[in-house]
Amino acid sequence: MDTQIYQHAEPFILESGKKLKGLEIGYHTYGTLNTHRDNVVWVCHALTANADVFDWWKGLFGENDLFNPDEHFIVCANILGSPYGTDNPLTINNETSEPYYLSFPKFTIRDIVQAHQLLADKLGINQINILIGGSLGGQQALEWSILEPSRIKNLVLIATNAKHSPWGIAFNESQRLAITSDRTFYANSPDGGAKGLKAARSFALLSYRNYKTYAVTQQEEEDNNSDGFRASSYQGYQGEKLVKRFNAYSYWYLTKAMDSHNVGRNRKGVEKALSAITAKTLVIGIKSDLLFPIEEQQYLFQHIPKAAFAEVDSFYGHDGFLIETETLTNIITSFFKADVKGKIIDLQQSA
Fold first, then answer.
1. For the residues 54-72, what does the mean pLDDT come to?
2. What is the torsional sign of CA 141, 146, 151, 154?
3. What is the CATH number of the domain that holds 211?
4. Are residues 204 and 312 located together in one domain of the fold?
5. Catalytic site residues (predicted)?
């Protein structure tokens, strides 16, 4: 499916006060908006994903999955700064006729959401039946539910938090240090910082998985090796994969945006901001998640008024939100079948 493009006619004003002229947003839709316009499922994607949710969240989104185009009108929009259809550092700056590179204005999670609010307006979507996201996608979904409580009916937050932690910021800064140590990052070329990006991805993988994941999937089959380990080649392979489909500039900016996430900013604190959410909310945490520890999801559950909480016991750590689609299907189905708000329930057992 080809990416659709929405071009915003007016200047887009960022939280910093800086402006983007002629903002373009890439997005995908699946299914048909019904006559009551109440069957919208809006997906907020994570750091290096794209608007084609049927490609990267298979098992949860697809023709025969829980969220399918026969029942739902599914929307997924590419986020600001990402190179898959929306304005980003490699976009041509009309004032210079060259890509922005490091002159692209810094932006926040709140800016990403406000861009998607414009797209929702353009599509005539006054109510989102289900807003769902994991990781950075969950940060967006949470922010949107606070910015526009009346627009969001149901909210599903997976492996995310109310504000990005010092631990998460430290991981992101380590990745940016890797990128900026590659001197080509400052060369203003589309492949600038590629080696640094490869190293950054290696850091990121350590936060997405965990000790047990590597112990099983990258274990040596015999005891005589002294070099050329599977874990080493895996890190390099995954770094190369990202370099082929992403760019160092977008990655640098998007990690900065993730660091900016704090729903309490200019709202008299985090708890005050969370109390403004009116959506029926399902918060899902992953017990083995190193990057977004389950305490962060428990905090959301405790401070969002109409919330339920479920946890996933996954072997895959943070990446479990992309992989454990059968378990997520059971949990989400149970949530919508039962009146479980305000409870900690083993939802997957009640499916």
1. 98
2. positive
3. 1.10.1740.110
4. no
5. 135, 289, 318
